[in-house]
Amino acid sequence: MRILVCAAEAPLSPLNGFRLQLIPVCAGLAERGHEVCVLAYRRERQHGDPPPGVELQLIDYPELGLLASGARWLARSQPLGVITGERAIARAARSLVAEREFDVAHVAGWPLAGIRSALQPLPAILTTLDAWHVNYAARRDAASRLARPALAQEVRRIARFEASSYRTFDSVVVVSNEDAAALRRLDPAVRVHTVPNGVDTERFSPGPPESREPSLVVMTGAMHWAPNVAAARYLVESVLPALRKRVPHARVALVGRDPTSELVELGEEKGVVVTGEVPEMTGWLQRADAYACPMVNGTGIKNKLLEAMACACACVATPIACQGLDVESGREIVIAEDTEAFAAALAEVMADGDLARRLGAAARDRVVADHGWDAVVDTYETLLSRAIGDQQRAAGPARADAPSN
User: Fold this and answer.
1) Residue 246 and residue 254: Cα distance in Å, rounded?
2) How far apart are CA 363 and CA 309, in angstroms?
3) Helices (H) and strands (E) in the chain — how many of each?
4) Inter-axis angle of helices 177-186 and 132-142, to 10 degrees?
5) pLDDT, tens only, 140-179
């Protein structure tokens, strides 16, 4: 297959949840002999090389001033992210489709769902990873009373955009059944497929037992992302005091790039470390006496939790953090529904080494079995091939020639 990938972010470092999925999928398709051309926006501070065998064409992300962005947002009914990012990449995609031969398109990122017409006549699939309107609603709920009306309007715009744009694609890919159900509620005609994220289980692997630091609770993630900020605050402000009643010397490390000012302030408290960006996440996961994933809102599979499980951490998580995962409380992780239960579970895995080792071993086995990248690439390869085949069948016998491989 000759695949044109249009991506809201380039498959380059540093990693986030979006790039963490895009890079191995593109690399895996290229390794299987498919021609993969990625047209993408280069975001701030991105660097490095694309995956081996992947052609990368970069566009600078359009930086609109506050007045220009606000004027477009007021004048159009689309969400702000679409208004900012759609035009430049649509023009570039239209030119590429006219100049070169492709068999299928893969649009990666919900801000680009509106470029479908620029990809004609190619069949196309869309990867959104999560239900955007649900994730944005979490941001609305966490906002100040003053900001909430504007954010509520944006949630409504996003939902309308998803309902009108996603149905034009042959397949829409999300990472959890909960996200798929949310999109089907918006529009039952959307052809949604659930493809869980993968994990590099060689990179994320257990360290020696002596690397665990007693009483250290680790939480990881991009610390500017609203659901992670809310989870980190909940961990430090609510769970940690309850935990210290059981484990007086308990410490918390919030590990991840771009912490907000409010999280930096939390790092001024005794026994709380806010690291900012670190060169390698694995070392912190291998040091954790317990791993916390205390999500209180948000959608999608939590890559950070999968990575901790792959490192055989003793993980404690809220129910919402476990969306899309085939896990059972007490088998691979401990699921805690409220503050006291969360603190008690952290204390228990810290005190009971046998329990922590059993949970960690089962967690890693689950990730290895269910979240290898080969299976993820298999599914994308199938969806892309199916989109080509559906178009050929719809066109009739005159278009029965198979795409090049």
Assistant:
1) 21
2) 5
3) 14, 13
4) 100
5) 887 788 888 888 988 999 999 999 999 999 999 998 888 9
**How confident is residue 71, by pLDDT bands cut at 50, 70 and 90?**
low
Please, what sign has the CA dihedral across residues 256, 175, 14, 113? Answer: negative
DSSP conformational letter for 102 = -
pTM for the model? 0.80
Enclosing H/E stretch for 140: helix 132-142
Asked if 172 contacts 193 with a C-beta cutoff of 8 angstroms, the reply is yes
Question: Quick one: what percent of the chain has pLDDT higher than 70?
Answer: 93
Q: Output the six-digit token pair for 152.
A: 């509520």
| CA separation, residue 42 to residues 13, 14, 85, 118, 316 (Å) | 10, 11, 11, 20, 36
Which residues, including other chains, have CB under 8 Å from residue 393's CB and lie 6 or more apart?
none
Tens of pLDDT, residue by residue over 200-210, are 899 999 999 88
CA dihedral (393, 395, 399, 401) in degrees, to 10, reads: -20
Q: Using pLDDT thresholds of 50, 70 and 90, give the confidence band for residue 83.
A: low
Question: Residue 400 pLDDT more than 50?
Answer: no
Domains detected in the chain: 2-198+373-399 (3.40.50.2000), 209-370 (3.40.50.2000)
Written as six digits, the tokens of 393 are 């069948």
